[in-house]
Structure of DUF1329 domain-containing protein:
Amino acid sequence: MDDSLTPTGAILQGSDDGQIPDWVSDKTVADELHQQLDKDTPLFVINGSNYQKYQAHLTAGQVALFELYPETFEMPIYQSKRLHHIPQWLEEATRKNQKDAELIDDGNGITNVWPGVPFPTPENALEILWNHLIAWRSISAKGTFVEATIHPEQRHYLIKTEVEIAMPYYQPDRVPVTDNIILTYYLTRITSPARIAGGATLVHDSMNPKMGQRQSWIYNVSQRRVRRLPFLGYDTPNMNSDDIRVVDEVNLFNGSPDRYNWKSNGRKTLYIPYNSKVLAQSTSDIESLLTPYHLNTAPTRYELHRVWELEATLKEKQHHIYARRKLYLDEDSWMALIAEQYDQSDALWRVSLSHTQYMPDMPGVMKVADVFHDLNSKSYYVQSLIEDNGRWIEFSNKLPEKSHFNPVSLKRRSTR
């Protein structure tokens, strides 16, 4: 690739005014900077009384949160640090993808792809979107996560879940895929509260939805049996979110893009959630984070970064509860970190924020917490808060055996 780009396709150089730094090309330096993040202090704080001053670098969703919660919602702004690194083999695969990878099925699938970023120098909105859909999240990982739905003036409860993911797409020694492959295996098992503990979900997510639909199974504790689910996707409500989040909002957007027309609004410079190490460390006291209306903002961190803005408009004769959506993708990791969802009258309805951090052991970027705000009900749903001060997540450079993600074994593992 061009020497002016990082190994993932981002602009290597920072901004002319110095607010956005150059990418840290030395991994040893990046790892050291990550270790020091908890010693940083905010440059300033954006709140309900001064957000207009910074509105040029805010999304409509962030402005809506300031206006809806003027006394409590804040964004602590820190010095930007671009620490994202990936394994060497992934860099090499990304270089191959630059000349080999192609869209198929009107942009709803990809082919000739190596195990890297599919389109490091994208030419259209769907290529940008596919970089997010296949963003590097390790070969295999497992951890314990917490989710909760917070309603105004109502009690809430925590759902704790053991999660395992594996991405065959990122098997380092594989040949380029020209037809289809399992993109992700996703297995969850609820450990608390007791009334639903043992319930489990298994998902096999296809890289090319037109060639093979997503397959899903659940283990029902009360019935003590594994059941194949009908298609799980699009605007199917998420069971644990009180209908605040739908299935295709995992990772802020996932699954087939086929129900929308997509366009790129180019690169923007925005304050986005970033380097959320302190938030991860704060999960030892999760209840203190779950304040009314939104997460406790004190341990959150926002930085000025370049993002890709994508806009999706629902196609005629297609159905989805969201008529329009916007995604804001971090240029370094290609992960969507902010999403905005609009209703059928084109009113802003929901705003989602993804807090992530660089993980040196991976290496790469992994989510700390995804927060989904419903502006009408003033409720929010938080998912993926990592337990044990953000430490209990294990990465592996090997894929588990296929039998590990077999629906036949789902009941056995759920009742151990």
